[in-house]
Write a structure and sequence with these properties.
Length: 726
């Protein structure tokens, strides 16, 4: 509403003029009252929201002239109650916290002296205790009003509840103290920096529309270096100074700012990676890097850099954790070197064993091969044939020792493969019992087997390895038994496991010696006896069982005997249509062995450099009624192969001029050109896993390990003859 302006007049007002002027004055008063009410409502709303209570004091009567609702709320009282209890200055003292009463009175006395200074506003803080016992922090502001003659008649002011402010302030203080303690005592280096300039540079690049920030920074090294120079370290802990061997924060900062002295390509990559990571959603960067200390000594450090929460838009506070990982890196390098050394040692060991295998098996091949051939020579006397058989048995024992050593090496290095399949337990046990029969008869030991308890039982195992386990346990049960003793093969069926027991009537094993049973080369004193053995059979047996998800255990009583248990997983059996049981096997032979194959029509080429072994295989093939041509090395064999149409190549691997591997590869290359395919069998005295695998990798169809007997050679030739059209 617009009010008409009243103009002064110098004439006597008439009755109408006075009435109009009175109307205008009343109208103006109403407008002013309305505006005052609005202002009062706003003040009340504002006072309530900021917990501000108003008061006026009658300085003449020394009592409150006005107290607001908010003032009463601060003191925890109803307004009417506050008027009743607050009649003079001293009445308020009982609400003041005892520890702050002196402070409050001091301020009041000072105010009384200075109240005549017009326009002066006083402010001071104290605590009040509400009737409920709750303590509140308040801040009081007071303003004095005086009359024209200088006499103070009224003052007014406000009291604000600052409890939440004080609480937040204390929490901030506590937080800052905890941060300072943590910052100071963490066992890693802490660096607080201001990255404001870096953020501005990156924001400018982004605003210019650069999409591939990494490539842009890689092509603008000067810009990255500038950003690094503009970073300011604001705080570090003592650990970081110690890591960098800096005597003070000043030394550290000066070195940090001397970017030109330490900048190189690695720091360019580091900062590009860091800037991009800090721009990411997590605002954190991890890195490990080589660095130098102030004294130029090198060290390795791990960085964790993060933008503190609340500073993501400015990067004003960035914290980096530095961890000296020099010792860890050295340990890692030492570990890598030790690992490489161990691998080299293991490789040397494998090479040694492979070489020893070759050197031992080569003469054994001749010893066992020729001694076996004597058994086919009808011109020899029975005594001569008996001696030949003893030679063969001695060679077999020596071969078993060599095999045990190689098996132990394979087990320790894990270099052996298992073919886990469903195995009919009775078949394996009967086969093992037959193999041990001769040894048992020689020592007058009876072997008892109730086949009915094993019928229909299948286990998950490697067929050959399980047979090896049982043969070892049966052999020990016979060798370490009493004269005319007994060996029983028993069975226990658990829910998901099968236990096969080999029980003997030997001397038994003392409890204190049981753990030593599975130590390599420990025969528990039997090495002084005439019982043959190496003391590593049980070691191999236990490891094989473990690899097949089984275990080996032993029960023994001194004077009564021992029972060695082999525990293996029970296999699931599929019911066939006829209602019987069918064996589940994941392995089926690709080629059936033809037991009655005619070998006389085979065209065979033999490559063998050792004249004794060449003579042996010639005699063996003659017994099998096979004819063959012979070459002393790979070059001669390859020439003969190109001149004749051979069906089977039997080649030694270690030969001069051209070895067996190269010969096999050359033959396979020729077959690609001609379209023919022949059978190649590698003959090797190297029985290590890698040696055998390398033969197949070269292109061999099969491998025949030395020493091999006549039966081995016959079965191999019959097996492959079945695939050849004669």
């Amino acid at each position: 509403m617009t009010l008409e302006k009243l103009s002064p007049t110098f004439t006597d007002p008439s009755q109408p003029d006075l009435a109009e002027e009175n109307r205008l004055l009343r109208q103006r008063i109403k407008v002013m009252e309305k505006e005052a009410n609005v202002l009062a409502e706003r003040n009340l709303l504002l006072a309530s929201s900021i917990k501000l209570g108003y008061w006026e004091w009658d300085e003449v009567e020394n009592k409150p002239a006005y107290l607001s609702e908010a003032f009463a709320e601060i003191f925890g009282l109803e307004l009417s109650t506050l008027y009743e209890v607050y009649q003079n200055e001293e009445d308020l003292y009982k609400f003041i916290h005892p520890e702050d009463l002196g402070i409050y009175q001091g301020h009041v006395e000072k105010l009384a002296l200075d109240k005549n200074d017009r326009g002066q506003v006083y402010a001071f803080d104290y605590r009040v205790i509400r009737p409920s016992g709750e303590v509140r922090n308040v801040r009081e502001l007071e303003y004095g009003v005086e009359q024209k003659d200088g006499v103070l008649i009224r003052s007014f002011g406000a009291v604000q509840d600052t409890t939440e402010y004080h609480r937040a302030l204390m929490e901030l203080k506590d937080s800052d103290q905890r941060y300072s303690v943590l910052f100071k005592h963490l066992p890693v280096g802490i660096q607080e920096q201001d990255y404001t300039a870096v953020k501005k540079v990156l924001d400018k690049i982004t605003a210019d529309g650069v999409e591939d920030l990494k490539s842009y920074l890689e092509n603008n090294e000067v810009l990255v270096k500038f950003a690094a120079k503009e970073m300011r370290t604001t705080r570090v802990n003592q650990v970081l100074l110690d890591i960098h061997r800096a005597g003070s924060f000043k030394n550290f900062s000066e070195d940090d700012l001397d970017v030109e002295s330490w900048w190189d390509e690695s720091w360019l990559e580091f900062y590009i990676s860091e800037f991009i990571a800090l721009l990411g959603p997590d605002h954190i960067h991890f890195a490990e890097k080589s660095d130098t200390r102030i004294d130029d000594s090198p060290f390795e450090t791990r960085y964790i850099t993060r933008v503190l929460g609340g500073y993501e838009d400015t990067w004003e506070r960035v914290i980096t954790v530095h961890e000296d990982i020099t010792e860890r890196r050295q340990n890692e390098l030492a570990l890598i070197a030790a690992k490489a050394e161990a691998e080299n040692a293991n490789q040397a060991k494998s090479q040694f064993l492979s070489s020893m295998s070759h050197e031992l098996r080569t003469p054994l091949n001749a010893i066992m091969g020729f001694s076996q051939l004597f058994e086919y020579d009808r011109s020899l006397t029975q005594l001569q044939q008996s001696k030949a058989h003893e030679i063969y048995e001695a060679g077999s024992h020596l071969l078993s020792l060599v095999n045990d050593i190689l098996d132990l090496s394979r087990v320790e290095s894990g270099e052996f493969d298992l073919l886990i399949e469903v195995v009919p337990l009775l078949e394996i046990i009967e086969d093992a019992a037959k193999w041990i029969g001769n040894l048992a008869r020689e020592r007058n030991i009876s072997v008892e087997l109730d086949a009915t308890v094993f019928e229909g039982i299948f286990v998950e195992a490697d067929r050959l390895k399980l047979k090896q386990i049982l043969l070892n346990l049966l052999s020990n049960a016979v060798k370490y038994n009493r004269p005319e003793g007994n060996v029983s093969i028993i069975c226990e069926q658990l829910d998901e496991r099968i236990r096969i027991g080999i029980k003997d009537t030997g001397l038994g094993i003392p409890e204190k010696l049981k753990d030593a049973l599975f130590e390599p080369f420990n025969r528990l004193g039997a090495e002084a006896s005439d019982i043959e053995g190496t003391g590593i059979g049980l070691v191999i047996t236990r490891q094989l069982a473990i690899k097949m998800n089984g275990l080996i255990d032993v029960d023994s009583k001194v004077g009564e005997g021992s029972t060695f248990w082999v525990e293996l997983p029970r296999a699931q059996i599929i019911q066939v249509e006829a209602g019987g049981l069918a064996e589940i096997s994941i392995h089926d032979p690709e080629i059936a062995i033809k037991k009655t194959a005619d070998l006389t029509q085979l065209k065979i080429l033999v490559a063998e450099d050792n004249p004794v072994n060449r003579e042996l295989i010639s005699a063996q093939l003659e017994v099998l009624q096979c004819s063959a041509d012979y070459a002393e090395n790979g070059v001669e064999a390859l020439k003969l192969w190109q001149e004749e149409d051979y069906q089977i190549l039997l080649t030694d691997i270690r030969m001069p001029i051209m070895d067996g591997h190269e010969l096999i590869k050359r033959v396979r290359a020729l077959e690609i050109e001609t379209g023919n395919a022949s059978v190649i069998v590698a003959i090797t005295a190297n029985a290590m896993h890698d040696d055998i695998e390398s033969c197949f990798a070269s292109g061999a169809n099969d491998v025949l390990n030395k020493p091999f007997d006549l039966k081995d050679l016959q079965l191999l030739l019959e097996k492959w003859a079945a695939t050849i059209t004669l």
